[in-house]
Amino acid sequence: MPEELGPELRAVVDGVFHTSADAAEVTDIYARFYAVLGELVAAKRASPGDDLTSALIAAHEEESGTRLSEQELLDTLMLVISAGHETTVNLLDNAVHALLTHPDQLAHVRDGRATWDDVIEETLRAEAPVASLPLRYAVEDLPLGELGGPDGAVIRKGEAILASYAAAGRDPEQHGPDAARFDVTRAAKDHLAFGYGVHHCLGAPLGRLEARVALPALFERFPGLALAVPSDELRPVDSFISHGHRSLPVLTG
Known about the structure:
mainly alpha; CATH 1.10.630.10; 2 domains; two-stranded antiparallel sheet; 9 helices; 6 strands; globular; heme binding
């Protein structure tokens, strides 16, 4: 990606997940998003490389029954770039924050009692990068009593469902009475942070790999890393979809 497009792309991705934005702001964000994607596609058409955008342009231009339309090309880029950026940023943010506010957990990793994979999975469970995702729709009537819910309650076919991955990760019935506690030594770290079934995130292996590279590199480079402000002064992102902080100020020691 051309470096000069970075700041604008970051701004519009943040805007996509700003769920408190009004209609005018949303319209402006999407217009800017398509504009910057148009610049990206133009740059890659002029100078293709070994990258996702070039591959999608090739799929758009191939003479076959599966070729992408120009709109599908832009929409695919919008989905992959925004979803792949926002989620990974929040995973790294939440993992760093959790370790800096739970030094005993960081000590487990440094002393070999837990791995960075343990950190990643426990962060995904306890601090899901996507808190809630609208919307799923029931394909048939779902009697909640049969699923452990209140008797008589039914989600009717066609009704919308808001999936709360963050709540699922902290469910005491699944993770015990200490479900809200960040514990990298927890034996069972099952979570829905990447979705489930046909909606399981296609970027899950990449997201885990990025965190597996970034986290040890950060803490090895800055062994004295510490929060620069009290944790209760950190502000959440303006979104009920994304779960992370607007910024995470640190001291490098």
